[in-house]
């Protein structure tokens, strides 16, 4: 028996951490290797358990809520059906190396467009579920941000958040005006609707890449996650400002709309920082506590810490939405875990909170993407403009990608990494689903027929942007990351060769 560090592919390896290597699994005897029958039994057993859980959950809803949980056209039963369908189609995407969100969005699109209103969704409940899911993913994103990388890439982060969004907004305004004769003011409004990147698509993808080790030394996941939040604030601010011009509203002022977005971002940053510092001390989180002889129940403390983290994030989002200052909440949710993790990380507390948030995400992920898909109603699509506006979208996306690529010059990223970030800046979903119908709703409330037609076109393009970019962008991120990003160099492990 002799030590070897060369790593020949024909050697039996034993890792120092006690986990078998790939070569060990290859060299297993046929008796030890899992058979097809065992895999089939395991698969069937797992799905029987899932089906039983779904039936039991619906039984509980029915026993507690009574008739409103019974089919057909029951809001509670509709939510259960859409969750089950979204989860099942999401799982069907995995064998093809496609992101589950693709199947989940397809489930929402199909169910919401079945004739006869088979699925009845309450708009307020749907919006609340989407907000909960988005809050969870933002809390997870904050835990994954690297403070050192954010500091070193602050200039790049600012450029990536602002320039591509503004370039795409102007490109949409110009192309729609030239190709379909859309008023420039409404075109700019449309540009800010489609100019926002979707955290619901981008952030989970970046978290997955971070866990796999792709691009972490260059800070790429942290850069994309941080920039996406600021990008959304800019898009929503621009939308509010242009909307105030398109509709001269007596209850709004230009000055307020100009300062509202930056003000909300600043308040969200301060609020998230203060609550993050609060989580440093409540529950206790210090090295002295861990080194002392007094009893300190880490499990109870972590449960309290998780509950506080989740409720702070949810309260930030829902309360600010209620007060019509919705730009504060998402940024505060991102910052609170980012700040808290500065103290948690040396004690490995952040990974335990991440485990709890991961479970919550597994529950709410099907709701988020299926309900975004459910916003896409084929009856609302303005088919006459389908080809021209698709062309406008493709042209503007080209300008966005080019701008995203160019703003990264001056950083230490190589060409492949710059190209990857440009790709990751494509997906759209959450903001478009949220503000896409706003102009149309406002036009209908005023009875302005021309504004209603313009609003329908804005909604049509918002829907098309989701259909084109969310699934394609998610697939491109997943497939291109292993080819374009670098992993950190792995340390040599002790290996033993059986002679």
Automatic annotation (TrEMBL):
<feature type="compositionally biased region" description="Low complexity">
    <location>
        <begin position="14"/>
        <end position="29"/>
    </location>
</feature>
<feature type="transmembrane region" description="Helical">
    <location>
        <begin position="47"/>
        <end position="70"/>
    </location>
</feature>
<feature type="transmembrane region" description="Helical">
    <location>
        <begin position="157"/>
        <end position="180"/>
    </location>
</feature>
<keyword id="KW-0472">Membrane</keyword>
<feature type="transmembrane region" description="Helical">
    <location>
        <begin position="303"/>
        <end position="319"/>
    </location>
</feature>
<feature type="transmembrane region" description="Helical">
    <location>
        <begin position="385"/>
        <end position="407"/>
    </location>
</feature>
<dbReference type="InterPro" id="IPR051843">
    <property type="entry name" value="CPA1_transporter"/>
</dbReference>
<feature type="transmembrane region" description="Helical">
    <location>
        <begin position="455"/>
        <end position="477"/>
    </location>
</feature>
<feature type="domain" description="Cation/H+ exchanger transmembrane">
    <location>
        <begin position="93"/>
        <end position="474"/>
    </location>
</feature>
<feature type="region of interest" description="Disordered">
    <location>
        <begin position="1"/>
        <end position="29"/>
    </location>
</feature>
<feature type="transmembrane region" description="Helical">
    <location>
        <begin position="325"/>
        <end position="344"/>
    </location>
</feature>
<feature type="compositionally biased region" description="Polar residues">
    <location>
        <begin position="1"/>
        <end position="13"/>
    </location>
</feature>
<comment type="similarity">
    <text>Belongs to the monovalent cation:proton antiporter 1 (CPA1) transporter (TC 2.A.36) family.</text>
</comment>
<dbReference type="Pfam" id="PF00999">
    <property type="entry name" value="Na_H_Exchanger"/>
</dbReference>
<dbReference type="GO" id="GO:0015297">
    <property type="term" value="F:antiporter activity"/>
</dbReference>
<dbReference type="InterPro" id="IPR006153">
    <property type="entry name" value="Cation/H_exchanger_TM"/>
</dbReference>
<feature type="transmembrane region" description="Helical">
    <location>
        <begin position="101"/>
        <end position="121"/>
    </location>
</feature>
<protein>
    <recommendedName>
        <fullName>Cation/H+ exchanger transmembrane domain-containing protein</fullName>
    </recommendedName>
</protein>
<feature type="transmembrane region" description="Helical">
    <location>
        <begin position="127"/>
        <end position="145"/>
    </location>
</feature>
<dbReference type="InterPro" id="IPR038770">
    <property type="entry name" value="Na+/solute_symporter_sf"/>
</dbReference>
<keyword id="KW-1133">Transmembrane helix</keyword>
<feature type="transmembrane region" description="Helical">
    <location>
        <begin position="265"/>
        <end position="282"/>
    </location>
</feature>
<feature type="transmembrane region" description="Helical">
    <location>
        <begin position="186"/>
        <end position="207"/>
    </location>
</feature>
<feature type="transmembrane region" description="Helical">
    <location>
        <begin position="356"/>
        <end position="373"/>
    </location>
</feature>
<keyword id="KW-0812">Transmembrane</keyword>
<feature type="transmembrane region" description="Helical">
    <location>
        <begin position="419"/>
        <end position="440"/>
    </location>
</feature>
<dbReference type="GO" id="GO:1902600">
    <property type="term" value="P:proton transmembrane transport"/>
</dbReference>
<feature type="transmembrane region" description="Helical">
    <location>
        <begin position="76"/>
        <end position="94"/>
    </location>
</feature>
<dbReference type="GO" id="GO:0016020">
    <property type="term" value="C:membrane"/>
</dbReference>
């Amino acid at each position: 028996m002799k030590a070897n560090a060369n790593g020949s592919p024909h050697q039996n390896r034993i890792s120092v951490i006690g986990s078998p290597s790939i070569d060990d699994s290859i060299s297993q005897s046929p008796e030890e290797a899992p058979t097809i029958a065992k895999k089939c039994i395991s698969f069937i057993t797992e799905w029987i358990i899932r089906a039983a859980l779904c039936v039991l959950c619906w039984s509980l809803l029915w026993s507690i809520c009574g008739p409103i949980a019974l089919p057909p056209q029951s809001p509670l039963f509709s939510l259960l059906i859409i969750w089950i369908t979204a989860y099942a189609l999401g799982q069907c995407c995995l064998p093809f190396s496609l992101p589950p969100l693709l199947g989940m969005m397809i489930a929402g699109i199909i169910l919401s467009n079945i004739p006869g209103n088979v699925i009845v969704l309450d708009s307020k409940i749907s919006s609340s579920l989407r907000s909960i899911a988005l809050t969870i993913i933002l809390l997870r994103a904050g835990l994954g941000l690297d403070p050192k990388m954010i500091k070193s890439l602050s200039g790049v982060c600012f450029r990536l958040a602002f320039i591509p969004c503004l370039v795409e907004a102007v490109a949409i305004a110009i192309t729609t005006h030239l190709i379909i004769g859309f008023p420039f003011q409404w075109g700019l409004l449309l540009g800010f609707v489609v100019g926002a990147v979707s955290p619901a698509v981008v952030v989970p993808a970046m978290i997955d890449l971070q866990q796999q080790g792709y691009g972490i030394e260059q800070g790429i996941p942290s850069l994309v996650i941080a920039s996406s939040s600021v990008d959304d604030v800019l898009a929503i601010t621009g939308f509010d400002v242009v909307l105030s011009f398109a509709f001269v509203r007596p209850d709004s002022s230009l000055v307020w709309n100009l300062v509202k977005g930056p003000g909300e971002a600043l308040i969200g940053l301060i609020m998230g920082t203060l609550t993050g510092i609060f989580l440093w001390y409540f529950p206790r989180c210090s090295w002295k506590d861990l080194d002392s002889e007094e009893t300190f129940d880490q499990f109870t403390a972590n449960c309290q810490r998780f509950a506080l983290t989740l409720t702070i994030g949810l309260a930030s989002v829902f309360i600010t939405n209620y007060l019509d200052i919705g730009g504060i909440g998402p940024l505060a949710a991102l910052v609170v875990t980012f700040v808290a993790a500065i103290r948690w990380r040396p004690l490995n507390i952040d990974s335990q909170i991440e485990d709890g948030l991961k479970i919550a995400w597994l529950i709410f992920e099907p709701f988020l993407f299926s309900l975004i898909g459910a916003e896409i109603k084929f009856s609302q699509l303005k088919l006459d403009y389908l080809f021209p506006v698709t062309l406008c979208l493709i042209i503007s996306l080209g300008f966005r990608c080019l701008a995203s690529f160019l703003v990264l010059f001056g950083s230490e990223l190589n060409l492949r990494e710059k190209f990857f970030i440009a790709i990751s800046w494509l997906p759209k979903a959450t903001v478009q689903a949220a503000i896409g119908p706003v102009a149309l709703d406002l036009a209908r409330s005023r009875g302005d027929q021309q504004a209603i037609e313009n609003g329908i076109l804005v909604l049509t393009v918002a829907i098309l942007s989701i259909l084109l970019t969310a699934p394609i962008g998610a697939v491109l991120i997943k497939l291109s990351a292993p080819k374009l990003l670098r992993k950190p160099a792995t340390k040599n492990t002790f290996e033993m060769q059986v002679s």
